[in-house]
Amino acid sequence: MAELITVDDPDDPRLSDYIGLTDVELRRRREPAEGLFIAEGEKVIRRARQTGYEMRSMLLSAKWVDVMRDVIDEVPAPVYAVAPELAERVTGYHVHRGALASMQRKPLPAADELLATARRVVVMESVNDHTNIGAIFRSAAALGMDAVLLSPDCADPLYRRSVKVSMGAVFSVPYARLEAWPKGLEAVREAGFRLLALTPDAKATSIDEAAPHRLERVALMLGAEGDGLSTRALMAADEWVRIPMAHGVDSLNVGAAAAVAFYAVATGRPES
């Protein structure tokens, strides 16, 4: 059973995991180095626990203590009960969902481990917007993608905003980082995947014509919002594919495009 501790000092060192949650640069450096990430909201906290993440501590406003009572009774980690005003002073923002948990990260698998069993893989290049990362993971989970591979410069999927937007889907879809880019794509191809680069370029094949759902193994490559995939990444692909547009619209937000493309990749695929 967790120990419930009332804290009224924003400088209490026991709250250090929660300091400056809106400072992206600070958290980007600190969280991976210290092996932690922040889960926000009751549903996300529960999902993190259900998928095997260990809790370091929990920060709750008073009215959330009863809601989270079963979790408090199950975990050995300390639970800090604080006033909403104190939570805001510590974290840097109004904690609308009233519940935060500091969770212990798991070691990331190697890319080749994921490729050995996956059939439908997402490959992201330089996607640094945390909202987009979260949206892509949520769609990947919902639409049956098996794994995600990240270029070395992609944002952290376990950053608080990504976790929140994904509704915890970042815990469900296994992911790994490719150590070199775009050289790491060679290992994806060697594992039997056809590399499809999603691009609005007019020279690309319509994704309907490419029929990725008929392929045995597909790796769908996505680039950052605005810039899209780099020239190097496009040149490393086996085929360029595009989503047909209407009414003069040239492209979709990468999160929306990912969802459409994932549906095309997964729909009608043969059973394992």
Q: Would you write up a description of this structure?
A:
Keywords: Methyltransferase, Transferase. Residues 121-263 form the tRNA/rRNA methyltransferase SpoU type domain. InterPro entries: Alpha/beta_knot_MTases, Ribosomal_eL30-like_sf, rRNA_Methyltransferase, SpoU_MeTrfase, tRNA_m1G_MTases_N. It holds the Pfam family SpoU_methylase. This is RNA methyltransferase. This protein has helices spanning 24-34, 42-50, 69-74, 84-91, 111-117, 130-142, 160-166, 185-190, 207-210, 231-236, 254-266; strands at 4-6, 36-40, 54-61, 79-82, 99-104, 120-124, 147-150, 175-177, 194-198, 205-206, 218-222, 239-242. It is elongated and about 60 Å long. Helix 6 (130-142) runs parallel beside helix 7. With 272 residues, the chain is an alpha/beta fold. Helices cover 33% and strands 20% of the residues. The strands form two sheets. Strands 8-7-6-11-9-12-10 form a seven-stranded parallel sheet, with helices on both faces.
Strand content: 15-25%
Tell me roughly what share of residues is in helical segments.
25-40%
Q: Number of helical segments?
A: 11
Largest sheet: 7 strands, parallel
Number of strands: 12
Going across the biggest sheet, name each strand in turn: 8-7-6-11-9-12-10
Radius of gyration: 20 Å
Structural class: alpha/beta
Uncertain ranges: none
Domain tRNA/rRNA methyltransferase SpoU type: 121-263
InterPro entries: Alpha/beta_knot_MTases, Ribosomal_eL30-like_sf, rRNA_Methyltransferase, SpoU_MeTrfase, tRNA_m1G_MTases_N
Organism: Streptomyces filamentosus
GO molecular function: methyltransferase activity
